[in-house]
Amino acid sequence: MNENLLEMHEYLGEGYKPLIDFNCWRVAVLRYLDELRPDRISYFERHNETDEVFVLLQGQAVLFMGEGGDTVDGMIPYTMKPGIFYNVRCGAWHTVALSRDATILLVENRDTARENSSYFTISPAQSAFLVETVQREISEWQVLND
User: Of the candidates 138, 135, 37, which has an alpha carbon nearest to the alpha carbon of residue 80?
Assistant: First the structure.
């Protein structure tokens, strides 16, 4: 096959991995890593120059949207369903908790980075809410992540 006509990529490691960059967009994969366990999530992020699309390909995940302006004052959980496109709008606080077998496809601007994103450290009470929500929404979470 002519490599100029088709690229093929696969990623089976842990965490975030950009796979395809083209012009102004990027396709990446997010897979389980320990910092995405609900009891280890310590911050929300927001991208100040781009939307970010999440698509659950396999496993289980809860996407948390943060309410508030410069801080996260409240959280809205979304138990992700495979094949649904979740478009996190530019400037929206968010984080995601993943099961060990989860794979998420991400589409974002190619230049999305720490330099054009903001981060908010969550409080112990917010952390407890996050953990409690994941335990309630994903009954298998305890089994999958022990």
Answer: 138
Question: Would you mind telling me the total number of residues written for the chain in this entry?
Answer: 146
- Return the CATH superfamily for domain 15-145: Jelly Rolls (2.60.120.10)
Give the gyration radius of the chain's Cα atoms.
16
Give tens-digit pLDDT for 64-114.
Answer: 999 988 999 999 999 999 999 999 999 999 999 998 889 999 999 999 989
CA–CA gap between residue 1 and residue 83 (Å, rounded): 29
E strands, 3-137, in order: 15-22, 25-31, 43-47, 52-58, 61-67, 74-79, 85-88, 93-98, 103-109, 117-121
Number of alpha carbons in the 13 Å side-chain half-sphere of residue 77:
18
- pLDDT (tens digit per residue) in 1-18: 566 888 889 999 999 998
Burial label, 25 (beta-carbon count in 10 A; 0-12, 13-18, 19+): middle
